[in-house]
């Protein structure tokens, strides 16, 4: 292919000054193409290979420079007029994302780039393409993620806030004689939870499922100060599992005068079996109940999230025994996290 003629010293200096002063990435790249062509008489195909662009891009840049000189290197779209996606557009788009399409009269319940462009046009902003809407979303650092399902607490706000503040004060008064714990149960399924993972662009990882699911259950309590987890296991999630966890706490903290446990309103926490067991413990354990549907205020829920993220999500265990061994390994590492990040553990050898 033909090469660009040798550039004079004056032209080279002009290009260097322009590249240093401009903030136009397109202009800088075209100047780089000319510099690469002028250095050593490289062919256009060779320059395209070196700069990682198409040969047509090099050819077009050369043609622009030969026909119009330096002005031909500038982006002609600069003179297209006022930028449609200005700061007012971006601010309005950011506010729009706090609502749902149904709030604006659309039938679809989730936003797409095309629908956002149509709604912004309906709000008397200039019409833009789907690609331009994608760039606008990147500029406001919007993300496309999974919503979080929640159930609203049926209590009045003041009542809910009063109970939560009382539980916060209880946590602040935690001592060796009056330890405080957050408690809850977690389901362990042999059928793996599916979660995000890094993969190559052309690859989709497979997660083999056992076909027939099996379940196991843990009841755990997290010390509000030390973060230490006390847990028990059982094949059923019932009052016996919760009572076994109470006994484990009493055995692990024999010097405690009263053990305070913050838990949700699940039936096994207030059943007749649990009430009889609490009476047998003779006031050693006191339960404190969260308002309904307030999982974010139970700190052990985060432990269970970490457990799923590090053990059960996308797991490859073929048996429940192997999966439970990984669960126990994670919880032991969690209790020893001062010395080891449980997310960075090396896998234990099979049979350990």
Helix content: 40-55%
**Shape designation:** elongated
Rounded to an integer, what's the Rg over CA atoms? 32 Å
Q: Please write the string of helix (H) and strand (E) elements.
A: HHHHHHHHEEEHEHEHH
* Helix/strand/pairing category: alpha/beta
The major sheet is characterized as: 5 strands, mixed
- The CATH fourth-level homologous superfamily of the largest domain: Ribonuclease H-like superfamily/Ribonuclease H
The number of strands is: 5
> With helices defined by DSSP (H or I, 4 residues minimum), what is the helix count?
12
CATH class descriptor name of the largest domain:
Alpha Beta
Widest beta sheet: strand line-up: 3-2-1-4-5
The CATH architecture term of the largest domain is: 2-Layer Sandwich
The CATH topology of the largest domain corresponds to Nucleotidyltransferase, domain 5
Mean residue pLDDT: 87
Strand content: 5-15%
- Distance from N terminus to C terminus (CA atoms, Å) equals 66 Å
Q: How many independent structural domains? A: 3
Low-pLDDT runs of 5+ residues are: none
Textual characterization of the structure:
This protein is of the alpha/beta class and 352 residues long. The protein has three domains: 70 residues, no CATH class; 53 residues, no CATH class; 171 residues, 2-Layer Sandwich (Nucleotidyltransferase, domain 5). Strands 3-2-1-4-5 form a five-stranded mixed β-sheet, with helices on both faces. Helix 1 runs antiparallel to helix 2.
